Amino acid sequence: MLQIEKLHVNVEGKEIVKGLSLGVKEGETAAIMGPNGSGKSTLSQAIMGHPGYEITKGRVILDGKDITEMEPNERSIAGLFLSFQYPLDIPGVSVNNFLRTALNARRKSPIPLPEFKKLIKKQMETLKIDPLFLQRYVNDGFSGGEKKRMEILQLLTLDPTTAILDETDSGLDIDALKIVAKGINTFKTEKKSVLLITHYQRILSYIIPDTIHVMVDGRIVKSGGKELAEHLEEHGYEWAR
Ligand SMILES: Nc1ncnc2c1ncn2[C@@H]1O[C@H](COP(=O)(O)OP(=O)(O)O)[C@@H](O)[C@H]1O
Ligand SMILES: [Mg+2]
Known about the structure:
alpha/beta; binds adenosine-5'-diphosphate; binds magnesium ion
């Protein structure tokens, strides 16, 4: 479903992703593990079309369509979703407005209000988010864990076909991690593709990946099954290098 072909990405003129190829099939959960600074977030921003991350070579294919040149909103409508490692605050825009507007942007006719309310209520229960959050501004004054839950609320609301989750586990205590994992597992069905980016093995006990890719210095240096995570935990990234 998602195919990354020999991708090179520059940030501020410096090459960070250096010829990376990777495929995530329909229904597959793939994990990318790698040390800090290996280019995982750069890769995810480039896949989503952030203008500051310049693709100099290679292609990104989604569902058979070349999306390399598309605008981020077009990629979103095509079925791609990115959960940020560092979610941004949007003061002045309520969670309620944000989610409805984002959802309506990808529908032919706006979602009727009662239907929207029902949908959101169910998801907020799954993620244990207080309904009062609907009236608050997006991420404004949220704790780290609340921001990550808000990302997953967006995931469940927009219901994309392919989700890239960039360190959704970072900074979460064990209870929050379980809630977030439950949300992600709710999203996963046999039709969805997930690319889970992490540098710890911890979240992979709750969301079992089909494949693990190890990224070091802008490249995939090793790929394998879920047992690779335990091996990494024991031997560290030096071993993969
Ligand atoms: N917006 C940016 N401006 C300048 N340098 C950046 C930017 N984004 C990433 N980099 C650099 O790219 C490298 C990889 O960073 P990143 O993709 O965040 O790695 P990871 O997510 O694997 O920790 C780092 O050296 C980082 O400083
Ligand atoms: Mg990162």
